């Protein structure tokens, strides 16, 4: 399902400021649905993280169960597919576009643990730094799921599902993006943001997602 950069398919709640592609023109940057907790600092930056208050549910909040109609008139229960947001960017600007998208997500109220960032080329500096302490410590942070996590496309199969996945097509062989994009889409619970060349990404979206 090819996407057109000028008219990206964005959920109504995912509108926001626009990222700037390499050509200098304004391009869409997402403002996804706010998460359950206020924004916290990016990985490596100190900042408070307050848990969301427990939801108080009373008897009036619970709707009585209704029988499901049988026959062809009854709609099949299917999970909603994640929205896809395309941010046009050059190979050199894809990582910056992804960082800006993450900042907007956190500013909109998304919890840091809701966000996974995937790179197809050079590792994100945060991932490089954390991997310098060993893979055990690095993956322990992934499993904790309480902060933004950055990973290489080559290991995206190890990633757990998160509400928002941001993918930066910032280099590497074309096959890397083609293989990682369907996996990234499968791990996005609500929103997939892809930063890179529109023609390349639409080519993959049209056949792989």
Distance between the first and last residues' Cα? 7 Å
Rg over CA atoms: 18 Å
- The percent range for helix content is 25-40%
Main beta-sheet annotation: 5 strands, parallel
Characterization of the model:
With 209 residues, the chain is an alpha/beta fold. The radius of gyration is 18 Å and the shape is globular. Residues 6-27, 32-41 and 44-78 have low confidence and may be disordered. The chain is built from 5 helices and 5 strands; from the N terminus they run βαβααββαβα. Helices cover 27% and strands 15% of the residues. Helix 4 crosses helix 5. The protein has helices at 94-107, 125-131, 135-144, 174-187, 198-208; strands at residues 83-88, 115-119, 149-152, 162-168, 188-196. A 5-stranded parallel beta sheet has the order 1-5-4-2-3.
